[in-house]
Amino acid sequence: MNRPHAYTGFCACHPGASRRGFLQSLAGVGAVGALGLTGCATMGTPAKPHRIDVHHHLSPPVWVNALKKAKLDSPPVNNWTPQKSLDDMDQAGIATSMTSPTLPAVGFLPPAEAAAVARASNEYARQLADQYPGRFGVFALLPMPHVDATLREIEYAFDVLKADGVAFMTSYDDKFLGHPTFAPVMDELNRRKATAYTHPNNPACCTNLDTGVPPVIIEYGTDTTRTIASLIYSGTAQRCPNINFIFSHAGGSITALTERFNTQAVRLPNLKAEGFDFDVVMKLLRGFYYDTAQAANPIAMASLTKMVNVSQIVFGTDYPYRTGLEHVQGLSQIFSGSDLRAIDRDNALRILPARWRS
Fold first, then answer.
1. Alpha helices in the chain, H assignment, sequence order
2. Global pTM value
3. 200 — phi, psi (to 5°)?
4. How many CB atoms lie within 10 A of CB 286?
C-alpha cells in the first residue's frame, strides 16, 4: 500500500482547471461552503477534513481471491486500492472512513472457509487503519450466517483488533437479521453495546424477476426494509436496545412503507397480541441510524427527516460505487449549519468508540 499524500484541498486535485473557475462551478450547488473551500480561495489553506464516512468499501485481497474463485468478483471490487480511497476522501473533506467489504460478504462460503476469509479480511482492515492513523476505521466482516464462527469473530474483532463495529448483510439465504437463528449474535452485540452497520444483499426470494433493471436498482433498498421489519417484529430490536443499527441508503424503501409498518402491520392479531402499536414501532424506527449513501438528494432526505430526527442520519458514500464529493454536494443543498455538521460527523461520533472523540 502506498503512503497517503497530505491533504491538499480540492484545488490541488484538479490540475487542468483554474481555481476560480472550479470554485465558481461548485458555488452553484453550494459545495464551496460544505467543503470548507473558502480558505482555498482566499488564504491557500484548506479547511481540515472532518467528515466520517460510515459506508466505505474496501477489498481485502483474501476476500477478492475468494470472490474470483466463485466468479462473484466485479471491476469495482478488483480495482480498489487504499490510495484510491484516500484520494476520494481528500477531495470530499472526509477525515475518516469506516471500512467494510460489500456484498456478498462471505455468506457464499462454507463455515470454515468463511471464518478464515473473515478473519484475514479483518486483520487486513486493522493493518490498513494502523498504517494510515485516523483515516480508516474497521467495521468487522462477520462469517454469517454461521453463528458459532460469527461469535468467535466478534470476540476477536473487538477484543484483539479493536474494531469500531461490525458489518452485516441484510439477509443470508432466506434469513433476515431478526431470525431466531441469529439471536445469540444479536445478544452478544447488545451486551457489547456495539454499532452494527448493515448493507443490502441480493435477496434469495427475488433472483429472477423480469423488472428490466438489475437487483441493485430495486431489490437492495427493499432488502434493507425487509431486515428492518425482521428486527422490529421479531422482537429483536426491543430485546437488544443497545445495538446501534445503521441502515444503508436512508433505510431503503422504509419511508414509503412507514404507514404499513406502524398502522397496518400492528393490526395483525399476532403482532397486536405481542404489544406492537403505532408508538412502539415509531420509537424503534426513530432509534435506528440511516446513512446518506446514494440518498443525498432532496426527495430521499425530505422523507427521511419526516420519519427521524437529523440526529439519526450519518454520512455515507458507498465508495467506490459512488464518490464522496457527490454526497457532499447533494447534502449541502439540503442541510446547513449544525444539522450538516451533525450528519457529516457528530452523529457518527456518538456511536463509535470513545477514542474517535479524543
1. 19-27, 31-35, 38-42, 61-69, 75-79, 82-92, 111-131, 147-159, 183-191, 215-233, 236-239, 258-259, 269-273, 278-287, 298-307, 324-332, 337-341, 347-350
2. 0.86
3. -65, 155
4. 12
Q: How many CB atoms lie within 10 A of CB 337?
A: 7
> How high is the pLDDT of residue 46?
55
CB-CB contact of 142 with 195 (8 Å):
no
- Rounded CA gap, 142 and 154, in Å? 7
Q: Which residues of the chain have a pLDDT value below 50?
A: 1-45
Which string of DSSP letters, residue by residue, matches 79-102? H--HHHHHHHHHHHTEEEEEEE--
- Cβ–Cβ under 8 Å, residues 300 and 252: no
Domain boundaries, the chain: 12-47, 49-357
Architecture of domain 49-357: Alpha-Beta Barrel (3.20)
**Per residue in 238-251, is it b (16+ CB within 10 Å) or e — as a string?**
eebeebbbbbbbbb
CA 211 to chain centre: 26
- CA–CA separation, 245 and 291 (whole Å): 10
**Widest CA span in the chain:** 66
Reduced to 3 states (helix: H, G, I; strand: E, B; else coil), residue 139 is strand
Q: Check whether the bond before 353 is cis (ω within 30° of 0).
A: no
C-alpha cell at 141: 466482516
Report how far Cα 266 is from the mean position of its chain's Cα atoms: 29
